[in-house]
């Protein structure tokens, strides 16, 4: 299609319960830092750049966000029906909504940190240059993501696909990174969600 979907189609999409958002987040005290590894007690995250840019790191924020499975299932069904434009638009809407919940989780963690006199530093997700994809299970456990029905594939990707995990450095005197997360991302040139 090269125009807005017919009213019947829009009504159908609006009636379907396509999103069941869930957030899990919290601040974890840092027990020890050694050789680029952050010991959080029950988990150790290997994040050399985060450690380098966060001197005296007292706490780490961990979060998980998901939209549930219904939206991605609907997108797959639309592709199977050869309704690609509607599928692409619905998928893009899901990406925008997931980014919104990610910002919401970050804001809630920042509010927790401010009450403790802390400020934010670098934010990274497993798979970024700063935090390997092999760290995904640890971050998901720290954010209590399994309780929200999120699992991890053999390749380290999250299921449901419209899910994300991330960590934020918190400290008393941390500076914001010189480059934003979008500017550090390897997909920055082709990403439609890049912050302007």
Give a quick precis of the structure.
This protein has 196 residues and is an alpha+beta fold. Helix content is 35%, strand content 22%.
For the report, how would you describe the main beta sheet?
Answer: 4 strands, antiparallel
User: Which parts are unreliable, with pLDDT below 50 for 5 consecutive residues or more?
Assistant: none
Order of helices and strands: HEEEEHEHHEHEEEH
What is the rounded distance between the termini? 28 Å
Enumerate the strands of the largest sheet in spatial order, edge to edge or round the barrel.
1-5-9-6
The mean pLDDT is 83
Rg of Cα set: 18 Å
Count of distinct strands: 9
Morphology: elongated
Helices and strands: which structural class? Answer: alpha+beta
Helix content: 25-40%
Q: What percentage of amino acids are in beta strands?
A: 15-25%
Number of helical elements: 6
Description:
It is a single chain. Helices cover 35% and strands 22% of the residues. The chain is elongated and about 55 Å long. It is built from six helices and nine strands, in the order αββββαβααβαβββα. The chain has a four-stranded antiparallel beta sheet. A three-stranded antiparallel beta sheet has the order 2-3-4, with no helix packed on it. A two-stranded antiparallel sheet has the order 7-8. The chain is α+β, with helices and mostly antiparallel strands and 196 residues long. Strand 7 and strand 8 form a beta hairpin. The model has no long low-confidence stretch (mean pLDDT 83). The chain has helices at 7-15, 48-52, 70-80, 84-115, 136-142, 181-184, and strands spanning 22-29, 32-34, 37-39, 44-46, 59-66, 119-124, 151-152, 158-159, 163-171.
